[in-house]
Amino acid sequence: MTSSVGRGPTAIAAFDAALHGAGIGNFNLVQLTSVIPTGSRIDDLGRDPARVEGQWGDRLYVVLAEGHADRSGDEAWAGIGWVQQDGSRKGLFAEHSGTSEAGVQSDVTDSLIAMTNSRPDDFGPIGRRIRGIVCDEAPVCALVVAVFEPQAWVYDWSPPADLNARSVSSSGSLYP
Fold this sequence. Notes:
The protein has two helices and ten strands; from the N terminus they run E-H-E-E-E-E-E-H-E-E-E-E. It is of the alpha+beta class. The chain has a single domain, classed as Pyruvoyl-Dependent Histidine Decarboxylase, Chain B (3-Layer(bba) Sandwich), CATH 3.50.20.10.
């Protein structure tokens, strides 16, 4: 789990600055839903960047919360909360963004309580990482990211020799 903030001339540039501050700016992010796989360990890095081994453009699986503000004085907040079972380490994430720390804290807590109440499993205490920034003229982004693992693209792939390729016509019929 890592977090960062960024500023830039546009919202996209602020988001990119926050990604770089979090140590994941050169990956293609694949957002996941909020289920923590069995056996997972959560390392909360706080404000330290993630140290992810991978190449430029690799896929990186994440749960992401991002908040944006573009007017002076407005606040951007993002947060991820989590719960896990003690034995299996399976669990749940809840990600939220908003304009106040208290609002994001409340949304994260309320979501996790509702999510755990809808399951027969018992979970441990709620963990959280919340991050915010105040806009001071240029657009800003607050970012909290649960980083899973990178995956390289397959470059040397070619179709099997016995593949019977088909295409679909505009009428929907298949042609061999």
